């Protein structure tokens, strides 16, 4: 298969970065198609840790083209910082190593200011955003007042739009959010530098991807966040402001319908979520704390501790179906070592009613009780395990049950953070 999308099937942080990095070895082009620097993929390559927020995880393989598609919203300052960090480590140096869609929208400093002021105002009801301005930038895109990278070409007209926007945003910041306004002069000067540095990367990336596909190149689409954070199918309003499904790769990168050969869903062997919102399998006992520490479950974008829960098969079915998943990559199996028994949520229950599937609209998800199966745990370390046969029998049983309940075959299993700590069952680019 030549065109593959990798998407999260939980609330993000499933370990997509590692899987994308692994598959990127077989791809020519790696593409981001939604979200902004509110995503963060952590990669461990040759013992060195990299956190990528905007540039696709393919950046750590020489000779690949990394593309940021039109469906994203991009903070130009964060992007430049990331490019500089990667280049300082010897990555992203080739002429065609990075392309940025002219059609992508920019996240401006006033978006971040609005995001943070709104969250502060919501207090206990805060959504739990990163505060980086992603939601307000998507709002402007839909309101048709956003600034696209294409606008930078004519800097005079860009400046006029920026000043208009800033006047509106400052009025809103002061009058409604009671927050400090931003200065236009500083921002215009900064954007001049941004323009000079980013113009060489800007391209019609949809046209570029079309030609690449016609030429038989292999393309990997990298989803950010996870299906339960999807603006339509997630736990609204505790979601992100874009579609996180594989389907978003079409609109968000200009990929024509029918041109995606396979979707790989990524899930942890347990569940985590950051911020507010319903979480049916959340573990409130010490096991949650233990998994958080063992799995280093602290947000890579914000450092916030992640909430921990058992694997949720109801959620997995919902997400895998929406994404039309061909296979499931299950990460962090190693973190469950020593937890005995392990639990899997097979259904929800509320007021005597059983839900084998996600309740419509996810209504009342905060009040359901998980119906769990218990399976024996395992105590052997999974360090160095590279095949299913080497796994303890209990771990194999756990995986079989997850595949059965999810209805999708397992394609990869993560046994550690490093690139090579993976059991590869089937690689979509080699099928
Ligand atoms: P992403 O946003 O979906 O890419 O996920 P993150 O990068 O935020 O979080 C995943 C974390 O888990 C990172 O620190 C990875 O290095 C780590 N990770 C990924 N796969 C595995 C695995 O199989 N085992 C362990 N122990 N860590 C993993």
What would your notes on this structure say?
This protein is an alpha/beta fold and 431 residues long. The protein folds into 3 domains: 3-104 and 201-263, Adenylosuccinate Synthetase, Chain A, domain 1 (3-Layer(aba) Sandwich), CATH 3.40.440; 105-198, Adenylosuccinate Synthetase, subunit A, domain 2; 267-430, Adenylosuccinate Synthetase, subunit A, domain 3 (Adenylosuccinate Synthetase, Chain A, domain 3), CATH 3.90.170. 30% of the residues lie in helices and 20% in strands. The protein has 11 helices and 20 strands. The protein has a 10-stranded mixed β-sheet with strand order 9-7-5-2-10-1-11-15-19-20, with helices on both faces. Helix 3 (109-122) runs parallel beside helix 5 (155-175) and helix 5 packs across helix 6. The chain is globular. The structure holds guanosine-5'-diphosphate (GDP). Residues 8, 12-18, 40-42, 44, 296, 300, 331-332, 334-335, 414-417 line the site of guanosine-5'-diphosphate (GDP).
Question: What amount of the residues lies in strands?
Answer: 15-25%
- Determine the mean pLDDT: 95
What are the distinct ligands in this entry? guanosine-5'-diphosphate
The CATH class of the largest domain turns out to be Alpha Beta
Spatial shape: globular
Examine the coordinates and then state which fold CATH places here, giving the name of the CATH topology of the largest domain. Answer: Adenylosuccinate Synthetase, Chain A, domain 1
CATH superfamily of the largest domain: Adenylosuccinate Synthetase, subunit A, domain 1
Query: Would you count the extended β strands for me?
Result: 20
